[in-house]
Amino acid sequence: MALIEINGMRFYAHHGCFEQERTIGTHFQVDLAFTTDTSCAEVSDNIADTVSYLDVYQVVKREMLIPSNLLEHVARRVGEAVLAQFTDTMTVNVKIYKLNPPLGGQMDSVSVQLDLQR
Q1: Which of 15, 21, 25, 115 is at a distance of 20 to 30 A from 42, taking alpha carbons?
Q2: pTM value?
Q3: Which residues pair with 96 in a beta bridge?
């Protein structure tokens, strides 16, 4: 079993509880880690024998484009979509950061991290 990570994916999206956040949008970062059996790919050196990082990125991007009120909801959708599309994936850890959140103070981000498994 291997752990594969895709870190620092950046998106401009429209998630938030405030109408202005959903209208104007803001920047988000997503870190995603998943476990899968890579034993065939380790020997074959063929991308067809593993989960393509590009394909996973496309799933994350698709889910990030769907507006939601809560990061918790987005994280659940992303994790479930990865598990559904990549049936060899056993676990998914997704962490979503809202960069420069409108909370009335100076901070880099807020984040939600969610673990899902088959």
Answers
A1: 115
A2: 0.93
A3: 30, 112
Domain count, the chain: 1
Q: What's the rounded Cα separation, in Å, for the pair 80 and 112?
A: 15
The residue type of 45 is D
The enclosing domain of 88 has a CATH number of 3.30.1130.10
Point out the residues that are catalytic: 98
Q: Does the pLDDT of residue 103 top 80, yes or no?
A: no
Q: Chain centroid to CA 23: how far?
A: 22
**Tell me: the pLDDT tens digits for 30-54?**
999 999 999 999 999 999 999 999 9
Domain of residue 38: give its range: 2-117
- pLDDT at site 22: 83
Partners of 9 in beta bridges = 30
List, in order, residues 6 or more apart from 112 with CB less than 8 Å away. 70, 71, 72, 74, 75, 95, 96
